[in-house]
Design goal:
Elements: H1 14-23, E1 33-43, H2 58-69, E2 72-75, E3 82-87, E4 90-94, E5 100-103, H3 110-128, E6 133-136, H4 155-163, H5 171-176, E7 180-185, H6 190-210, E8 216-217, E9 220-221, H7 227-232, E10 240-241, H8 253-261, E11 267-270, E12 273-276, H9 282-288, H10 297-304, E13 308-309, E14 311-313, E15 317-323, H11 332-341, H12 344-353, H13 359-372, E16 377-378, E17 381-382, H14 383-401, H15 416-424, H16 428-438, H17 446-454
Parallel strand pairs: 10-13
Antiparallel strand pairs: 1-5, 1-6, 1-7, 2-3, 3-4, 4-5, 7-15, 8-9, 11-12, 14-15, 16-17
Length: 456
Amino acid sequence: MDQHDHSSDPIGDLEDLLSPFRAAITPRAQFRVGTEAEKFGLLSDSLEPLPYEGPRSVLAVLAALVADHGWSEYREYDAGALISLKREATSVTLEPAGQLELSGSPFATVHEACAEFSAHLEELRRVSEPLGVVWLSLGFHPFARDADLPRVPKLRYGIMERYMPTRGPRSADMMRRTCTVQANLDYESEDEAMRKLRVALALQPVATAAFANSPLYEGRVGQYLSERAAVWLQMDVDRSGILPFAWQKDQSLRSYVEWALDVPMFLVKRGARIIENTGQSFRSFLRDGASGARATFEDWETHLNSLFPEARLKKTLEVRGADAQPSDLVCAVPALWKGLLYDPTALAQAESLIRDLDATTVEQSRPEIARRALQARLLEHPLLWWAEQMVDIARGGLERLGHRNAAGRDESIHLAPLERRLERGITPAEELLAAIKADGGGSSALPAAIVAHARV
């Protein structure tokens, strides 16, 4: 077995750029599902954003997780700032304004992923409560302005904060005021990777509607049921969106690489040295280099991590369009996408469901989906109809896959909280708005209702 670390090797040609995706091809029997879930930290007495450092802070929470629960610290370089924790295949990482993310282990079943998430929340509660810290799971920060939020000193974040606002008016909001739940899935061939990518891109706006959970803006009811989805519509168009090229059935992994090559870079990293390199496409960097640096496999991986479409390919297919969710709905996200994409019958049914959709039609629907969620329309149907069809296909897929827990129940049980809401035609956002109204509806009702609804 080749034990050489190839990350610093120079890239030769296009075939080299395809190698990370081809290396990720996984036999179906070894398919796994991973979950990433973000949340906002607040000081429980004032509901002010949790600072990065200090006696009650992100760093204090991380230190307690290390001391009490066996996590290990990770810094970008020697003496660098603490930016994440690791424990076996699981990570706790920080987003640019201190949002805490569980990057879960890859598991064979959603049951296992859900158990890991529940254990994470329990650990987080144990270390946060003595510090007077609460965590909220919403797609957009319900109270804070950008100026109120801390800054995490990760090397690339400073560059992104300077560059991204030049590419879209809400790019800073994307980085600093949003949270999401993401599912990561495998593929067994190049063709299947692109089939799954097409289905995920087409159905992502439907999932965005079903999981809408960000109706608030700076302490008041906003214009959107998913403020997070509205933010993503005013983001860097070069690196985000629904990738219209991928909807064409003759596309391949080579097509994805060609798209990624033309997206501008953020940086080149050489140890603790950072070369800011915004504006140069990776294609140009591969050809010409930058500041004496030549393109390596590590540079390519770093670049792929800087692309933010609604579904993206790396070592897995990452499906990225859901707001952060109430605790009972987090596991519905990986369950939905596993049911849709891992069962061959369900995948074919999903392809049939989207057969009349095209990228232009879906793109035009996204602003109204952000605003009205399930009450928006796509072609001749409301999004509620689309969501019901999508979830029904996913349920059938999970039932056929038949991965059961100790009680003998398959993974479709994790869709039940979503199905109950769809039966009522509501989203988590509308549940929160109803709770605010029940508490009196005024500004004084907001904090208690938000914390009660969104606390994890």
